[in-house]
Amino acid sequence: MIATTEPRWVQRLLIAVALAFMTFFLFVPLGTVFYEAFKKGVGVYVAAISDADALSAIQLTLIAAAISVPLNLVFGVAAAWSITKFDFHGKSLLLTLIDLPFSVSPVIAGLIYVLVFGLQGWCGEWLRDHDMKVIFAVPGIVLATVFVTFPFIARELIPLMQAQGIEQEEAAHVLGANGWQIFRRVTLPNIRWALLYGVILCNARAMGEFGAVSVVSGHIRGQTNTLPLHIEIVYNEYQFAAAFAVASLLAGLALVTLVLKYAVEQRVKSQKRAVGERSE
To answer: What is the DSSP letter of 77?
Structure first.
C-alpha cells in the first residue's frame, strides 16, 4: 500500500537530497579520515598508532569503557526493572533524571565534577587529606564517562519491558519462582537483544566522549588523555598524519558499531513485533 500521494519525481528528489546530504556530511568526511590516515604510507600509520602516548590513550579509553559500560549495564537493568515492574512514588522523576545527560552539556557535567571533587571543590580538602585524586586522574574520567552514557541502556530497555508487561513474571511467581529465577529465566531472555543494543551504543559513546572528559582530565600527556583528547593534541601540533591515523581507529569503531547496531536492531524490531502480536 502506498502511504503518500506525492508524484514520483518528488519522491526521487527527496531521496536525492537525503543521499546528497549524507554524502557531503557523512561519507566524504569519513572517507577523508581514512585517506589522510594512510596518505603517507602504512609505516607512518603504524608508527602513529604505536606511539607511547597513543597507546596510553588507547589503554585509558578501554579502561574507561570497561568500567563505565558494566556500571551502566547494572544501572540500566535495575532502573528499567523498577520503572516497568513496580509502581512507586517518584517514578516519573526517575524517568526524567535518566534523560538528564541528554539535556545537559557534557562540558557542564565535567565542570560539576570539578566543583565537587577538585582541589577547591566541596570534597577537595577531604580527598587531599586522604591522598586521593579524582580530577585530573582516571577516577574523574570514569565518573564523567558514566554520567554521559548512563541513559543509553535504560532507554533501550524501558519501552520493550513496558510493552511486555508483567504477566509472565506474575505467572512465574505463582509457579514458585523467586526473584532471581524470574529475572534469569523469564525477563532476561526477553530483553537480551535490546540489552545488547544498549550496550553497543553505550560503549561507542564511552570511547568517543570528548567534552566531559576534556574538562576533568587535565590533558596530561601519556596519563589522562583518552583517544579523542590525544587526537586533538597531535592535530593542534600539526601532526596531521598521526591525528588522522588515531582518528581512523575511532572511525573504524563507529563502522563496527553501525554494523552491530543494525544487526541487533533487526532482532529488537522482530522481538517487539512478536510482543505486539502476543498482546493482541
So the answer is: H
The one-letter code for the residue type at 162 is Q
- The single-letter DSSP state of residue 41 is -
Between the CA of residue 235 and those of 75, 77, 190, 210, 238, what are the distances in Å? 36, 39, 46, 15, 5
- Given this model, what pLDDT does residue 275 score? 58
Q: CA torsion angle for 86, 90, 95, 99 (degrees, to 10)?
A: -150
Q: Let me know: does 206 contact 69? Beta carbons within 8 Å.
A: yes
Compute the distance between CA of residue 201 and CA of residue 179 in angstroms, rounded to an integer.
28
Averaged over successive runs of 10 residues, the pLDDT of the chain (280 residues) comes to 70 91 89 91 92 93 94 92 85 87 90 90 88 91 93 90 82 81 83 87 91 91 92 92 92 84 75 61
Cα separation, 141 vs 159, in Å, equals 30
CA 195 to chain centre: 13
Residue 200 near residue 193 (C-beta atoms within 8 A): no
* Cα-based distances in Å from 230 to 77, 178, 214: 33, 49, 10
